[in-house]
Amino acid sequence: MAIEDLSKKASDLAGKAGGFAKQNADKIEEALKSEKAEGISDKILDGAAGLANKVTGGKHADRISEARDNLDGKIGNE
Question: In which domain, by residue range, is 48 found?
């Protein structure tokens, strides 16, 4: 398969994904605000924040915590 074919397929899939997201915006928003999403996002965000703190030696812990909390407020129900 040529690179042009892959690019066209990727573009087609992106268009379909965008259409799906528009048609199901309410359901997607509901899923992102669910208790299950909250639990999953907390685990992922905690892990990412922990890794960032480890990599930076804790030098930016306050900024990392702020970014983690900001993202957490956008996903889940807490």
Answer: 33-78
